[in-house]
Write a structure and sequence with these properties.
Layout: H1 6-19, H2 27-30, H3 34-56, H4 63-72, H5 77-104, H6 109-127, H7 132-151, H8 159-183, H9 188-215, H10 221-246, H11 252-279, H12 285-307, H13 312-345, H14 351-385, H15 403-427, H16 432-445, H17 452-477, H18 484-502, H19 508-523, H20 533-556, H21 562-582, H22 589-607, H23 613-641, H24 646-660, H25 668-686, H26 690-712, H27 714-717
Helix pairs in contact: 3-4, 3-8, 3-18, 4-8, 4-19, 5-7, 5-8, 5-10, 6-7, 6-15, 7-16, 9-10, 9-11, 9-12, 9-14, 10-11, 10-22, 11-14, 11-22, 11-26, 12-13, 13-14, 14-26, 15-16, 15-20, 16-20, 17-19, 17-20, 18-19, 21-22, 21-23, 21-24, 22-23, 23-26, 24-25, 25-26
Length: 734
């Protein structure tokens, strides 16, 4: 007798054998993961329920209910809830705007399209300033307005009913997807907390590996740190969705973002300490022993946190970190005491000893700051594991607003809508409104992307696949059938495959999203008729051509150029450093690290999967700019204490002024930093006032790193010309 568990065991074995080889191309279809299969089945059923209800309610465009179900279905429940909420908000606002537009410009196409283009362009421009699905809401406002205006262009008296109908079936699709997702998402809060924990542990593991490489002076330490810094903004954005799943009155998401920001600061402190250690080489034996202990801690810490499901390991690690930090501070105090004793002797033979002690204090200060950031990472990590209702902690990253990128996005969208409207008017194609509609959908949906052509390419492929499958369904399968039951049976397998592809890794997910969205539209389910040949040949090509025209406009109007974008980012980095040196741009350390991390992430996104030597140099220069900005903030902080003498303050002010006037390739900041060090070092060696000496040591440590950074990265700081790699064999430039 065959056991009931045999099929399940067989499937698990097949799944393991297929997924053990990562090169198997159709593993997502032949042996999908149970979670992926559950997602595809759940969303297919939700789409069928939405479509059946829309047909039962005699809606004019029931396919939009099924389309909406696939649109809001995301990889996590938090993403689905967020997208559904903002889609509903954007749809409602867009519906009101669509009614207002058609009421203001009835039967006036040459007024409607320009103003519609301005409206959509403005929405897309503002969407660039927002993150996650808040940006998507403004995109929804723009193309919902366009869809309603174009749908009601030939029947303006029915614009209110058209807007109400669209809002109704969008709401219906959202409700069906949300209800089924809620039924099949047990222990959602626990799963979200585990995902947040894994995300933070992954970032901490990468940070420990990167900093350990820097402390060991390993060549790949900087590379590992750079890769992690570029991924921090994306990890912080994902935290919002876990936060939604964990429910209201929970600040675990704020603590998670603070922990990720502390990870960035930990990496930045590691880079600074690495430079100090190179300048002081060989480092004192007791300091080297402390570095060895810390490297051992960084090696075992991620594994201990991973194995311990409670906060015991994190609490124990914090105690050990605080012990190491206390010892570092104590060694710094011991060096200070010995330094002051040698000051009393004031003999020429003690000059080198005092200098070594001063250098050791700089090292210990940098090490203490490194450990402080690591302790902060674990403090916020613990807070995510034991959320409290009495916790009122808030943390927001406030990303920088890129006005030029927003303007370009708005112009692209406006140009695409004008092009679609012009084509409709000139050709008088009966389905030209459908073409113009999907030009608007494509241009607004991808306008906020930095590289819209690359982002929309999968969208176009998905539309083509949907057209192919809909052709088979409309011309071969559905004519032999009747009734909603046979319609749903015919759509089941194509939709299930699309759902599995949506969870597949790589670029296929973008293609699958468009395929799932457009398949119901191209099949055109209705109560009293079916999609006939003439309708299919008019409607489906209009959809595909509209998407293609939207992408084509992206290639013609302000096309994206990765090299030009990197150059623009480099100019912004250096310009920010100049303004910070002048004191006209102020940040906290956390804000500057977050802004620098966003720019690193942009450069990495522009580089694609195979960055060349020039991109690697750009990333190194961007990390240098991040470290330089932190040191400029430190020098301003030293000056704000007003403890140094006028001459000493003037030396630091001169360095900042030199940085604020960077023009072309120059070593002036490096020379000014070296000159200031030479002036402040003797003063620190004889200064007896403890507070003044501490500020002098902080300033000397900052100047030491500034001298190194402006010497090593003078070419990157030259924004008068493109960045060239003289030693690269390809003679690359950007």
């Amino acid at each position: 007798m065959v056991s009931f568990s045999f099929p399940l065991q067989w499937y698990r074995g097949l799944h393991a054998r297929i997924h053990s080889g990562s090169s198997f191309p159709l593993s997502w279809l032949i042996a999908p993961a149970p979670a992926d299969l559950g997602f595809a089945l759940r969303t297919t059923v939700a789409a069928f329920i939405a479509l059946s209800l829309a047909l039962w309610m005699e809606m004019d465009s029931p396919q939009w209910a099924a389309m909406t179900t696939w649109i809001v279905a995301q990889n996590s429940r938090g993403q689905s809830v967020s997208k559904a909420k903002w889609r509903l908000i954007g749809t409602c606002i867009g519906a009101v705007a669509g009614i207002a537009f058609l009421a203001a410009f009835p039967l006036e196409p040459w007024l409607v399209f320009p103003f519609l283009a301005i409206w959509a362009g403005g929405c897309c421009a503002i969407a660039t300033f927002l993150r996650n699905f808040r940006s998507y809401a403004l995109v929804l406002v723009s193309f919902t307005t366009t869809i309603i205006v174009l749908s009601a262009a030939n029947q303006p008296d029915n614009v209110f009913m058209i807007a109400l109908s669209r809002t109704t079936y969008i709401t219906l699709g959202i409700v069906c997807e949300s209800l089924l997702a809620a039924l099949f998402a047990p222990r959602l809060e626990h799963v979200a907390q585990q995902e947040m924990r894994e995300r933070l542990l992954g970032a901490l593991q990468g940070a420990c590996s990167g900093v350990q490489g820097l402390l060991r002076n390993q060549p790949d330490g900087l590379l590992r740190s750079r890769a992690l810094l570029g991924s921090i903004p994306s990890l912080a954005d994902q935290t919002e969705f876990s936060e939604i799943e964990m429910g209201p009155h929970n600040h675990a998401g704020d603590h998670a973002r603070a922990s990720l920001n502390a990870v960035s600061a930990f990496l930045a402190r590691g880079m600074t300490l690495h430079i100090h250690m190179q300048a002081a080489s060989p480092v004192p034996p007791d300091f080297q022993h402390a570095i060895d202990d810390i490297c051992t801690l960084l090696t075992v810490l991620p594994a201990e946190l991973q194995q311990d499901a409670t906060i015991t390991a994190a609490t124990r690690a914090r105690a050990q970190i605080r012990l190491y930090r206390t010892r570092s501070q104590q060694r710094g105090i011991d060096r200070l005491v010995r330094f002051q004793l040698l000051q009393q002797q004031d003999a020429p033979t003690t000059q080198q000893q005092r200098r070594d002690l001063l250098e050791g204090r700089i090292l210990e200060s940098a090490l203490a700051k490194l450990l402080m950031e690591l302790d902060l990472v674990l403090e916020h990590f613990i807070a995510t594991q034991i959320p409290s209702k009495s916790d009122h902690f808030r943390f927001d990253r406030h990303p920088a607003k890129d006005v030029l990128l927003a303007t370009n996005n708005g112009i692209r969208s406006a140009a695409a809508i004008c092009a679609g409207g012009l084509l409709w008017e000139v050709t008088a194609w009966p389905d030209g409104s459908t073409l113009a509609m999907f030009v608007a959908v494509t241009s607004t949906r991808f306008s906020s992307f930095e590289d819209p052509v690359h982002a929309a390419s999968g969208f176009f492929r998905g539309a083509v696949w949907a057209a192919v499958i809909s052709f088979i369904l409309c011309f071969v399968v559905l004519p032999q059938q009747s009734g909603i039951e046979t319609l749903l049976a015919s759509l089941f397998f194509p939709m299930l495959v699309g759902g599995l592809a949506l969870r597949a890794p790589g670029s296929i997910a973008g293609t699958a999203a468009a395929y799932n969205n457009f398949l119901p539209f191209m099949v055109g389910p209705a109560n009293h008729n079916r999609m006939d040949e003439l309708t299919w040949f008019n409607t489906t090509p209009a959809v595909v051509l509209g998407i293609g025209l939207g992408i084509w406009v992206f290639r013609l109007v302000l096309p994206f150029d990765a090299a030009a974008e990197r150059w623009r980012l480099r100019r912004k980095m250096v310009r920010d450093l100049r303004l910070m040196a002048k004191g006209r741009l102020t940040f906290t350390s956390a804000q500057w690290i977050a802004r620098s991390g966003d720019r690193l992430a942009q450069i990495i996104r522009h580089a694609g999967t195979h960055p060349n030597a020039l991109v690697e140099a750009y990333l190194t220069g961007a990390m240098s700019a991040m470290a330089t900005g932190l040191l400029i903030l430190r020098l301003h902080n030293v000056l704000s204490h007003k403890l140094l003498s006028a001459d000493q303050g003037q030396q630091i002010a001169h360095v900042l002024e030199t940085i604020s006037h960077i023009k072309g390739y120059t070593q002036a900041p490096a020379l000014a930093s070296a000159h200031a060090m030479q002036a402040l070092l003797p003063a620190a060696m004889v200064e007896r006032n403890l507070s003044q000496q501490i500020d002098l040591v902080r300033a000397i440590g900052a100047l030491e790193v500034l001298r190194h950074e402006f010497t090593a990265h003078a070419a990157f700081m030259d924004i008068t010309q493109r960045f060239h790699l003289v030693d690269a064999p390809e003679r690359l430039a950007a």
